[in-house]
Amino acid sequence: MRVKMMQPLKKTVRYVPEESKDKVISDEDVLGTLLKVFQALFINDFNKQSDILTMLPETVKSKYHDLLSVQHPRVKLLEYRHQQQNIFKPEEILYKTLGFSVARATSSLISAGKGVFVTRGLVPKGAVVAMYPGTVYQKYEPIFFQSIGNPFIFRCLDGVLVDGNDKGISKVVYRSCNGRDRLGPLKMSDSTWLTSEICNPLAVGQYVNNCSNDRAANVCYQEFDVPAVFPIELKQYLPNIAYSCDKQSPLRCVILVALRDIKQGEELFSNYYTIVS
């Protein structure tokens, strides 16, 4: 996990009491939020999803046609149109869906580089506010070269590692795995977090800075395994991919949950830092 080496901040090992089981909110709540956001992104980009829709069962196709004809309380996408001017930006979809948006910007901390800010709206306590993207490694898989000088390695409680570096060999590995796992036009993960044009606006969690004595943590990390029933057409927005082809283990994702209400303009700060040498 990323640690700002230039900051005189105390580094702590990520620790979660056993009784808390690392769950601030339930897996059901996490899944519900991701499905809500991803579905809104899918509908917003509906005119580009024709190749994907042709491969889906009629029951799935009809679900999206039905959704397009019904007004969502927050996502006001009332009908399917092809005009590009009717396409919202991902951060706008996030705001219309969850009531807030987040984005990377220069951190308020000196020499901290990039940080993540609430750019619009209010993040309520207990909300999923971001995701930690990257290649997911089981603890027995090789990650030596990727980890050299890499401050973006996140270690889960069970030893699973997530490499959230968007540069160098880490970037090459992620893109390679992303291409490997495609099923025709169906993408099993999102690689746009490696670029400046992010499709999933939640995929900025690797840039959340460490808390300090005068900047208390307002978000925390929570691990989430993607269930087998996750809609295949929405996997294109998952910013994580398994290094191994082994399909026995569910895909591990790490999400960031708000510890309190976070207002517009505030920077996100986390805790529970682990350094992988």
UniProtKB/TrEMBL annotation:
PROSITE patterns in alphabetical order: SET (PS50280)
InterPro entries in alphabetical order: SET_dom, SET_dom_sf, SETD9
Task: Name the domain of life this protein comes from.
Answer: Eukaryota
Identify the PANTHER family for this entry.
C5ORF35, SET DOMAIN-CONTAINING PROTEIN 9
Descriptive protein name:
SET domain-containing protein
Q: Write the lineage as a comma-separated list.
A: Eukaryota, Metazoa, Chordata, Craniata, Vertebrata
All residue ranges annotated as the SET domain in the record:
100-273
Organism, per UniProt? Felis catus (Cat)
